[in-house]
Amino acid sequence: MATVALTAANFDEVTSKDGIVLVDFWASWCGPCVRFAPTYERSSEKHSAITFGKVDTEAEQALAAKFDIRSIPTIMAIRDGIVVFAQPGALPESALESLIEKVEQLDMTEVRDQVAAHKKTHDTKAPSTEEPARATSGATS
Q1: What integer is the mean pLDDT of 118-122?
Q2: Active site residues
Q3: Which of 39, 54, 42 is nearest to 1 (CA)?
Q4: Per-residue model confidence as pLDDT tens digits over 29-44
């Protein structure tokens, strides 16, 4: 399977489906990106059930900003609409194959539970400004 160009217009549609989507954030002026491209392409040909997307960070600056891409290439793995891996740096072919294997083996029920627990922890309501939080210095009022 050839790689798919991902843009702001199609990114959510492509990455929200069930299954695995690998995303390569790259730019034409980036030497490591250019050297990694054939490895990524070969992997896409081996794994027809996986969508291999590429985001040109020059043309899609809003997407790069949305995912806080600061170094390219950055490889992202999304499974069933959940980002399960993101790391800057070109991967050797063996490491890319290992990543694919690990993403395929993920227990997505467990991943969803972890995401829900993380969200619940981070969505707790902060004290309102009308009722300041009490200090825990031992003093009572």
Answers
A1: 84
A2: 30, 33
A3: 42
A4: 999 999 999 999 999 9
Residue 51 DSSP SS3:
strand
Domain regions of the chain by residue span? 4-122
pTM of the predicted model, to two decimals? 0.82
Residue 121 pLDDT level (bands cut at 50, 70, 90)? confident
Segment 72-117, tens digit of pLDDT: 999 999 999 999 999 999 999 999 999 999 999 999 999 999 988 8
- Cis previous bond, 73, omega within 30: yes
Radius of gyration, CA atoms only, the chain:
20
> CATH topology for 4-122?
Glutaredoxin (3.40.30)
Whether 25 and 69 have beta carbons less than 8 Å apart is answered as: yes
- Distance of alpha carbon 40 from alpha carbon 95, whole angstroms: 11
